[in-house]
Amino acid sequence: MSTKLSLSLAVLVALGALSGCRQVTIVEFKVDPNIEAPEVDQVVVDASPQKQAIYLGGLHETVGFYDLNAGITIRTWGCNNEKVVLFGQETYQVAADRITVVLSRLERDEACPRPDGFGGLYQPPGLGGMSGIGGMGGQTTLPGTGGAAGNPDAGSPDGGAGSTGIGGVTGTGGITGFGGSDGGVDGGGGECGDIHDGGADLGVCEPFSGSPSTNEVPRFTVTPACESYCAAMFAPANGGVVCPGVYHDIAECQRYCAVVNWPDGNPPPMTDSGDTIACRNRYLEMAKTFTDPRARAPKCDIAGPSAGTTSGGTAGECAGAAGLCVKYCNAWSAICEKDRNTCVAACSTLTPPLTTCRFTWLVAASADRRYCAWLDLAAPFCLVPGC
Known about the structure:
Order of helices and strands: HEEEEEEEEEEHEEHHHHHH
Shape: globular
Low-confidence stretches: 1-22, 124-193, 310-316
Number of strands: 12
Distance between the termini: 20 Å
Mean pLDDT: 73
Radius of gyration: 20 Å
Structural class: alpha+beta
Strand order of the largest sheet: 3-2-5-6-7-1-4-10
């Protein structure tokens, strides 16, 4: 169940103690005092295999984990403009009320980890393997090793098979997941669940457990244009595929393409820069000209669900005249069967402006409409992970 957390961190900790929670550990963050702290706009905190990643807005925020086992390592990425600028990790050795992770500057170039649509993390080619589908929350940061342990809050019993690594080696599959714990805090009984103090009146959305009901799964028919687009996305390239990680697999690509119902657009040799399949195909053709996956990544991003823009339409990308809000609301209304105009009006007033991170969860919603409530800009229910 996705839970809205509306109480302060102190109150939640107190409620947790009253309701019999064994231990809550507050994790806070600081930058190594010997360096000049860079600007950070997103913090990714991961304590797998016990706890799935949580996404914070900055280093001033904290996160509380219930019932951590001693010996778990908490990894933290500090990101700016979707690039890692800080990294730190701390091993939780003994039961404690509070732990501090110290972050240092990361000298190598890495993209910020992001959700893979299954509760795990995806790190781009050359920086780590694709996530496996662990028990609703599996992940790995090693190339081609498959999923790690499942998320305890989701309660799925087994990890699934890992995805293909960048070197073309099939993942080994996830290890056994942990048993499920209680759900989130309900504000009345104070049930056990991970907590997040982002300074807002909303908690971080929690991925759903179990399968959606029949009426929560969108119906779709894959068109020839979607088949062609997804075949190009997953075409062989340098021991892998042209654009790894944009979609989990070709079936997910075809489903999303069909459910959002992009226009086909203008075929070559005409140039199409709209929010269309034809424009995305044009950037896939560009991506295929690069042998290095890192060099292909920007073109693949434009060829993906969000068409690569982070604000208003940008010349040369598949933006469409009206920019990101319209693209997002077109997709959301098609998947969720909601009013597009209400979405656009709400999007235009967002502070800070809409970013592309929500498109990852639109892909999840194309298979499970329960995620539609997360993504309603006019009536936000919770804080969308990574956004």
